[in-house]
Amino acid sequence: MLSLGSNMFSGPLPSCFGSIQGLSFLSISNNQLTGKIPSQICNASLFQVLDLSNNRLNGSFPPCLGNFSENLLVLDLRNNNLQGLIPIFAKVKSLRSLNFNGNQLEGPLPQSLHASKKLEVLDVGNNKINGSFPNWLESLPELRVLILRSNQFYGPVGNPTARFPFQKLRIMDLSNNDFTGHLPQKYFESLSAMMESHAAEFGYMGTGYYIDSVKVDMKGISIELVKIQKIFTTIDLSRNQFVGEIPNLIGRLKSLHGLNFSHNKLSGSIPPSLRNLSNLEWLDLSSNELVGVIPWQLTDLTFLASLNLSHNKLDGPIPRGKQFDTFNNDSFVGNLRLCGPPLSKACNNEQEPAPSPRNVQQSEDDGFDNWKVVFMGYCSGLVIGISIGYIVLSSGKFDHWFAQRFGGRTRFKRGRRRN
């Protein structure tokens, strides 16, 4: 094991590292290395972890890089200035983490990665990679992190060929591409890891001394997670060309911490089923074509710290209560028919504030109590009426009154007492 990370090393990467006998772990991350990756690095056939991230390396990959070690578990080259095509990974079947984020790579994503059945992390974000959505990734049974953000992918997403695609996926970031069509509902149906509670899965993703790290958008800010908690889950499909409605089944992804569908062309209403996302911390549906009222059920999201519904076509009063009382004007701006706090536009008399769940329950309880009062009054009156009627009917005065009022003989006769 050789770890030289977070120093001030500069200059080209020495080629001698490939000749060190028995070396299986090499990390020279967070330095100022320049130049190309030497092809001699491929002589280190026992490498399990190679981390050259956060340097200034440039040029293209040496062709041997995809096949130099059958034992390779981690290849981390993120945040450099590497160019050209991604190498073909024909023999690296034990690969667990592949991170090329933040380079200048282009061309398609090599389908040879299909053979890496142990792959858990695939991060190729912020490059120039193109092509249609690589749906062959569905069949990677251990894939937990998929980041394709800020590339040149295009076309529809969500026509699965695998029976149960992406069952272990926890981070799905396809943002800032040119994907089209409807949201990938078929994939949402199969995201089992986002439907379950992972409270017992403490710890971070990684292998031995190597800890996985990714950059994600959280609450409108790009943040680098230097450690990925195993319970962390998020979906980011923002800045594409998706159309149609938000499917109701999104509410089944109960372990989601973040959901971002902003800057698309989504229409229809906001599904009330989002209330089931009890762990949700940020929700961004801004810059779409959503219509209708904001469901009051969203006030049930007690962990929601960031909400952005701006620049849609929503109308009616903004729900109040719980977390909604903490959001400011920026969360709702650009919806010309919305009214009520925190907006300066007041609702008119016909637009009463949307009821909170507590108010609705209270109204239902009050209605039930009123019904009980009416029922009790009716029963009491009935008992008293029967009692008075019996007293009147048992007296002789009623016979006389009835004959005078309606004429004829009375039907009520009093029996004679026998001596």
Oligomer description: single chain
Class by alpha and beta content: alpha/beta
Number of strands: 29
Beta percentage is: 15-25%
Overall geometry: elongated
- What spatial order of strands do you see in the largest sheet? 1-3-5-7-9-11-13-15-21-23-25-27
Gyration radius from CA atoms, angstroms:
35 Å
Mean pLDDT: 84
The biggest beta sheet reads: 12 strands, parallel
State the helix count: 3
What share of the residues lie within helices? 10-25%
Sum this structure up briefly.
The protein has 419 residues and is α/β, with parallel strands linked by helices. Helix content is 12%, strand content 24%. The longest helix has 37 residues, at 357-393.
Walk me through this protein's architecture.
The structure is a single chain. It contains 3 helices and 29 strands. With 419 residues, it is α/β, with parallel strands linked by helices. The longest helix has 37 residues, at 357-393.
List keywords for this structure.
419 residues, 29 strands, alpha/beta, twelve-stranded parallel beta sheet, ten-stranded parallel beta sheet, disordered C terminus
Write the layout of secondary structure elements.
Blueprint: E1 2-3, E2 10-12, E3 25-27, E4 32-35, E5 49-51, E6 56-60, E7 74-76, E8 81-85, E9 97-99, E10 104-107, E11 121-123, E12 128-132, E13 145-147, E14 152-156, E15 171-173, E16 178-182, H1 185-188, E17 206-207, E18 210-211, E19 214-218, E20 221-225, E21 234-236, E22 241-244, E23 258-260, E24 265-266, E25 282-284, E26 291-292, E27 306-308, E28 313-317, E29 337-339, H2 357-393, H3 397-406
Parallel strand pairs: 1-3, 2-4, 3-5, 4-6, 5-7, 6-8, 7-9, 8-10, 9-11, 10-12, 11-13, 12-14, 13-15, 14-16, 15-21, 16-22, 21-23, 22-24, 23-25, 25-27, 26-28, 28-29
Antiparallel strand pairs: 17-18, 19-20
